[in-house]
Amino acid sequence: MTKRSPFRYFKTSPEIIRLAVMLYIRFPLSLRNVEDLLHERGIDVSHEAVRFWWHRFGPMFAAEIRKRRISGMKSSRWGWHLDEMFVKINGKRHYLWRAVDHEGEILESFVTKKRDKKAALKFLRKAMRKHGRPEAIVTDRLRSYGAALREIGASHRQETGRWLNNRAENSHLPFRRRERAMLRFRRMRSLQKFAAVHASVCNHFNSERSLTSRANFKMNRAAALAEWRGLCAA
Question: Which of 200, 197, 186, 199 is nearest to 87 (CA)?
């Protein structure tokens, strides 16, 4: 049976939809900024159309990227960096937990109202269910991590240190820039949805340009863009 295209009921071409979704998720732009950028390219769409496309296709694109990458990320079991960041929703503090591997890939994002043992345990189990158990788990000195790791029998894998967790700390920066452009979030559900999609898109286009030559960087960037343009193709 031939797989139906998810774009079959849309008058706008898939190329424009993919471009709009990529601009909105990847760069710190508002919906109206994306509308203006598309208008400069001769594409007349409203910011509400961009909003609908992101909600409809963003998780779909992220799921396909995640499916392709998880199968080839066995090295992510070598070492994880765990950290949580503060995010305000309607003036109330929430916590966005992140698991990042030793190469900077964001493995898992999880939103909770608290950062106690129960929340840490739920986050760890969710990440390990998808990616397996790592050889080492680097955390800060939050006691919730130690209690959760003892619960699942992995306390001997934990490592803490003043500068050891910089990998996870730096992974928050693109999301912080995106959060400011969106003027924060209003619901936990929307935060969880955007964090998961944003992580997959960042992983897809992330390239350590300081560690590679210009020629290799351009080649990797072109390959990532070509793969993005083929997402959810019929």
Answer: 186
